[in-house]
Design goal:
Elements (H helix, E strand, L loop, with lengths): L2 H12 L6 H15 L11 H8 L3 H13 L3 E4 L3 E4 L6 E4 L6 H7 L4 E11 L3 H7 L7 E10 L2 E11 L13 H7 L6 E10 L2 H7 L6 E10 L5 E10 L3 E4 L7
Helix pairs in contact: 1-2, 1-3, 2-4, 3-4
């Protein structure tokens, strides 16, 4: 344990009474992160070492750490330990224009990459059949990927399209909309539904945040000029990295 980090926990032991011990430890760690004494990516000592240095119980340490993980200040990696969460640049996304994730990130000069989770042709679910208006025996194209900008995982996208619109999901590279544009199937309007949700274990692991962390779930139903639904996408965005902005005008 470095002298700087050790001093942080010693201050907790010597601090005057000011609320529960776990809250005092929580404030000490949070203040150290905000002041730059410990930096994003730095590992914290083990629960046992913190308890010994701060002269408190391991249960108290665990409770303080759990609160800091829930606040997004710390992250825990199974088998590796507890770390100061990396700093993620917040992205402001307008709700007034129909753009793709690739276009949004490129416009900001951010380096984009994707981790494919799934893509292929499948028998549709009842929901996909109804929403996409699929005929008997028609397949559905599904693509699912983790979207990463400047090395930070920001979103998980899971899209469904009629196989007649996207017969070869493997042909999609960075931008789904660019691929649809090539065949004249790029949507011209969409309806989005946004809800605040807490992340489950699997999605949290992909987004490198704690299970239960806040996120935004976006359901997008996209239409061609003819009125046909061309795409149904469910996306999960990190709550600590995304702001959705809408401009409102007074009706006259």
């Amino acid at each position: 344990m470095s002298a700087t980090i050790e001093d942080i926990f010693r201050k907790t032991a010597g601090a005057p009474s000011g609320g529960p011990l776990y809250m005092r430890l929580r404030r000490s760690i949070e203040d150290a992160v905000k002041s730059g004494l410990i930096n994003p990516g730095d590992a914290l000592p083990s629960e046992r070492d913190i308890a010994a240095t701060a002269e408190i119980s391991r249960v108290t340490v665990r409770k303080a750490v759990q609160h800091l993980v829930a606040d997004g200040i710390l992250i825990q990696r199974h088998g590796s330990g507890t770390f100061v969460a990396p700093t993620v640049q917040r992205v402001e996304q307008s709700l007034s224009s129909l753009t793709s994730f690739t276009e949004d990130m490129a416009r900001r000069g951010m380096t984009l990459s994707s981790q494919w989770l799934d893509r292929g042709l499948y028998d549709p679910s009842n929901e996909e059949t109804v929403i996409l208006g699929l005929g008997a025996g028609e397949k559905v194209a599904r693509i699912a990927r983790l979207r990463v900008a400047d090395g930070n995982p920001l979103a998980i996208e899971r899209a469904s399209l009629a196989a007649s619109v996207l017969p070869d999901p493997d042909a999609v590279e960075n931008s789904l909309y660019a691929k649809l544009d090539q065949t004249g199937n790029r949507p011209v309007r969409a309806i989005q539904r946004i809800a605040a949700v807490n992340l489950g274990k699997n999605d949290a692991e992909l987004l490198d945040v704690a299970p239960g962390a806040a996120s935004l779930r976006i359901e997008r139903t996209s239409y061609l000029a003819s009125g046909r639904i061309v795409e149904f996408t469910r996306s999960i965005y990190r709550g600590d990295a995304y702001d959705f902005v809408a401009e409102l005008r007074l009706q006259t």
